[in-house]
Amino acid sequence: NCYRSKEAAKGATTDAAIGNAKQNEDAVPGDTASVISLVKGIKEIVGVVLKDNEGNAGATNTGDTEKKSIGKLFAKKDDDRAQEAEAAAANASIGSVSGADILKAIAKPKEDPKVNDAEGIVKATDAAEIAVAPSKDDKKEISEESAKKDAIIAAGIALRAMAQDGKFTAKNGEEKSAHVVNGAAASAVGKTLSTLIIAIRNTVDSGLKKINEVLATVTQGDKSSGVANTGEVTSSGQ
């Protein structure tokens, strides 16, 4: 788990604010190597701490029009940049799915996201490609069916927010929208990481419980209180 955590941490941003959206500035794709490190690290941890029936990468609950409009968070031309409606749609997408759904959506992509320099966000097919999509004039919608899922969109937002260089955008003069976009990004990251931490903790607790059950079985035939107490200390100490 230590290696896996290091792999995920390797891709994480350090000094920039999460989301880093500013009105009248272009969206910036997450660094591809950074996104790949995050996907690889989180995928390995998720494989250990989440069961097959926990989380659904395809989870989706909001309307297609709203989901497509979230592409404006990744746009270039000012008329295409996010305003309050698109920021609210992003918040709705993130709020409509669970942290486990988002984790499964991060873990789903292949570890080689394609960067489409002509079409940008329009051709993004999964969370990793949303994270690395370059901003292009007139490219302002999430259009690929495989990407138009709330869990995938939330995962893409979380990945871009955590990755080095990743940045969203808001329309000129829309300072409030920029704050809402950054709030959505922070929400996606918070939901992702808090679920991951709880899943890791539950896995550790479950592992320790099993160890203590084995110890209890082993020591049943041994009347040595010292050995028995070792099991109790392990249990209480954790």
From TrEMBL:
Regarding the membrane, this protein is recorded as: Lipid-anchor
Q: Domain of life of the organism in this record?
A: Bacteria
Which InterPro entries does the record cross-reference, listed alphabetically?
Borrelia_lipo
Keywords, A to Z, come to: Cell outer membrane, Lipoprotein, Membrane, Palmitate, Signal
Please name the Pfam families in this protein's record: Lipoprotein_2 (PF00921)
Entry GO terms, CC: cell outer membrane
Annotated compartments: Cell outer membrane
State whether keyword Membrane applies.
Answer: yes
Give the protein's biological function. The Vlp and Vsp proteins are antigenically distinct proteins, only one vlp or vsp gene is transcriptionally active at any one time. Switching between these genes is a mechanism of host immune response evasion.
- What name appears for this protein in its UniProt entry? Variable large protein
Highest classification ranks of the organism = Bacteria, Pseudomonadati, Spirochaetota, Spirochaetia, Spirochaetales
